[in-house]
Amino acid sequence: MTKNTKNVGMRSPLFYVGDKYKLMPQLKALFPENINTFIDPFVGGGSTFLNTQANKYALNDLDRNVIGLHDYLFEQSQNANDLLAALFEVIEHYSLTCSLQGKSVPDELKRRFKKTYYAVANKDAYNKMRSDFNGNKSRTNLLYLLLIYGFNHMIRFNRNGDFNLPVGNVDFNKTVKLALLNYNEFVNVNKGNVIRKSQDYKEFLQSCAISKDDFVYLDPPYLITFGEYNKFWGEEQEKQLYAFLDILTHAGIRFGLSNMVTHKGNTNEILTKWMARYNVFEIKSNYISFHDNTIKVTSREVFITNYG
Ligand SMILES: C[S@@+](CC[C@H](N)C(=O)[O-])C[C@H]1O[C@@H](n2cnc3c(N)ncnc32)[C@H](O)[C@@H]1O
């Protein structure tokens, strides 16, 4: 693995909202030791699979654009230098700033817009790239750069299916390069052993021939938090998921589920009731401070397992 100086997991180059990379050291310690196939039905940016040792990987996300980005990174990651060169060519074509290459924001703009100079410098170029992508959505390289230069690195489309995220106050920097190199390394080690699908998690899990030495890690949308991908997740989906996990348990399949029990004063009662019959581990996340009682606890994140 390319050196990561902080004591956190390897970060996915999708910089996904809800990314688990900071929690990977805690989660990995709770994962089973020997995993044949690591099955991730809500893969998102993929920080979990990138940080998990297994013989094979089965990845899925309902969002086709997310899987499209993984497909792109898999296909292009055979050679990291070629991938970077191709992205730099697009950056050059649109005249976006690129701090990694020393193409920085002019000093004049930095002085005038102290906190927003990347957004100011890149706005027009970003909007042009976005309209080119919306004119031809097969250009996943543009989608990837829209995500890198976009607000909070989000993947957001409007009802007409057009990408509609505004420019962010970031550019292509050394963190992006490190994440791409790490992803590239994973791809080159595991190339032939990864399948990717874009289906509802249930359909996907039913299509996998899951055996007892496999491990299903689930990080679904959280019922009590807010986010783009929580839009289509409600109480019914929550109940169905738990009923499905009970079926996996009866079949002797190992699973681990990440979720939020309380958040900003709300409690997920369905989860609280259901998890009582499983192993529940407290996860120290950004939101919580249960080891430091001087900080007000507003969230409780857990990892729930049916093994060990
Ligand atoms: C909390 S995020 C996963 C984040 C991921 N663990 C990471 O580190 O980036 C939940 C993901 O579930 C996906 N999703 C939502 N509903 C789904 C469904 N019914 N089946 C499969 N995936 C779904 C969303 O698109 C989103 O990417």
What report would you give on this structure?
- This protein has 308 residues and is an alpha/beta fold.
- Helices cover 39% and strands 13% of the residues.
- The protein contains 11 helices and 8 strands.
- Strands 1, 2, 3, 4, 5, 6, 7 and 8 form an 8-stranded mixed β-sheet that branches.
- Helix 6 (117-135) runs antiparallel to helix 7 (140-149).
- It is globular, with a radius of gyration of 20 Å.
- The structure holds S-adenosylmethionine.
- S-adenosylmethionine is lined by residues 16, 18-20, 41-42, 44-45, 47-48, 61-63, 66, 200-201, 219-221, 229, 233.
Averaged pLDDT, please?
92
Bound molecules: S-adenosylmethionine
Rg, nearest Å? 20 Å
Q: What's the CATH topology name of the largest domain?
A: Rossmann fold
Offer a few descriptive terms.
308 residues, alpha/beta, Rossmann fold, Adenine-specific Methyltransferase, domain 2, eight-stranded mixed β-sheet, 8 strands, 39% helix, globular, disordered N terminus, binds S-adenosylmethionine
Summarize the structure.
The chain has 308 residues and is of the alpha/beta class.
